[in-house]
Amino acid sequence: MELWYTEKQTDSYGITAKIKETYVSEQTEFQKLDMIETEEFGTMLVLDGMVMTTDKDEFVYHEMVAHPALYTHPNPEHVLVVGGGDGGVIREILKHPQVKKAVLVDIDGKVIEYSKKYLPNIAGGLDDPRVEVIVNDGFMHIHDHKNEYDVVMVDSTEPVGPAVNLFTRGFYQGIYDALKEDGIFVAQTDNPWFNSELIASVNRDVKEVFPIVRVYWANVPTYPSGLWTFTMGSKKHDPLLVDESSIPELDTKYYSPRLHKAAFVLPKFVEDLVK
Amino acid sequence: MELWYTEKQTDSYGITAKIKETYVSEQTEFQKLDMIETEEFGTMLVLDGMVMTTDKDEFVYHEMVAHPALYTHPNPEHVLVVGGGDGGVIREILKHPQVKKAVLVDIDGKVIEYSKKYLPNIAGGLDDPRVEVIVNDGFMHIHDHKNEYDVVMVDSTEPVGPAVNLFTRGFYQGIYDALKEDGIFVAQTDNPWFNSELIASVNRDVKEVFPIVRVYWANVPTYPSGLWTFTMGSKKHDPLLVDESSIPELDTKYYSPRLHKAAFVLPKFVEDLVK
Question: Which domain holds residue A229?
C-alpha cells in the first residue's frame, strides 16, 4: 500500500508526497501537529495541514529569515524569534558570533519537543548556551519587552489559528517598541500567487510603523507556489545600502553575499503589490 | 464527482490540480498531448505528463526565455525558437521592435494547432507577419542554417521523448554555427532540486562551445520545485555587462530592467552546480 500526503495549498491546487512513516499525528493545545517521513523531502513537519519545514529544503527558509537582517544590522547582539519552534532560524542566528543572546518564544511547546526528537539537524541549536527558549504567546512577550532587541524575526504559521495576531498592525507596533533605536524586524509574509492581498496589506501596515520597509523573496519548493516573501521593517539600517563585499562567506546553501541585494529585486507583479 | 490532475514530478512527489474539463487527450505522432481546464491555473497544456504552460503562470517562463537574451544582444533582428509551439516565447519576442523575423520550429504541429485553439492569449503572435512557423525537427533546422540568427532560444520539453537530442553537445555546436558572429543562445535547463545533474552537464557542454556562459532563474509555480533555470551561451555579449538603465520598461509581469542582472544571481547551491 502506498501512502501519500496531499496538502491543498488552495481550494483547487496542492502538492502530494509519498510517505514512509507517520511519527506523530496529534492535536496539541493550539494546532494539529503531524511529523511524517517522506521519500522526497525526508522528515516533514506539518501544522494545521500546512508544511512548515522539511529536511531537504529547510535551509532556504531558515537562512533567508535570519541572514539578510543580521547582515544589515551592524552589531546584532540580542535577537528574538517569535514562533520558529523547530529551531531552524535559531541555528542560523548562532552562525553569527556577534549574537550574545537569542530568545525563542513559541506558543506551542509540542513543536519544540517533537522537533528536537525528529528534526535534530534543524533543532540542534535550541540547546546552545546562548539560546533561551520560552513557551509563551509571542504577542504577549513582545508587549512585555521594550527597547530590548536588536533584531526580531517572526517565523510564524499562516494567519489562521494561533498566528492570527501576528499579522496585525498592533503587533508590528509592539515589535517596533521592543526593538532598540536601530532595530530591525523581519517576518515571513506568504506568497504572491495565491495570497497576494496578504503581502499588500502587511506592507501597508508595516510602512505605517517603520520608516524603512523592504520585501525580499526566496524559492522554497514545499511552500505554495515555491515563491516565498519576507517583509523587513527597519528603524535605521537599509538592507540595500549594505556593502556586500563586507559580508563574509558563511556556511550556507542558499544565502550568499552576492544574493543579499538580489533577493530584494522582486518579479514585477510582486513589485507592483508593494509599491 | 471531482476530477484532479496529478503530475508526479519525481517518483515520490507531485502537484495536483482540480480540473473542470478535458479539451484534448491525444497521442500525437511525437508525444501525449493533454489540454485541460483547471480551476487554479486556467487552461493547462500537458505534454508526456508534464505541465508545459498554464494561463495563470505562463508569463514567467515566456518572458524569461525571451527578454534576457534580447536585451543582451544590441540589435536582435533574426530570432529562432526551437520548440515553443504554444507561441508564448514568440509573443514576447514580438514586443521587441528591432526583431524583423522570428522563426518557430516545432516538431509537433498538433501543439501549435491546439494552442491556437485553446490558448489564444499565448499563441496569438503565431499569425503575426514577422513570424514564420515551421513544423520540423529543430535539430535538423539548426543543421541546415549557418551564420543566420542573432538569437536562438530553445523552448523544449524535458530531455525525454522528442527533445532528447536538444540536450547534447552536438546540438549546442550546431546552434553556435547557426548564430552570427555575435549571436546568443538560451535554453530552459530544468530545476536544481530534482534534476541537478542535468544543469551541471548542460553547463559543462555549453562551456565547451561558447566563450560566455551564464545561468539565470525564475519562479514558475507549476514547474517542479518552482525554481526554473535557463542557460545562456554567448559569442560576444555578456548579459552581466548590460547597462540596466538602457532597458526600457516593457509590458511584462515578471521581467523588468531591475531584474535583468538579479536573475543571474543564483542560490548558493545552484551556483555551486555550475562553477
Answer: 58-273
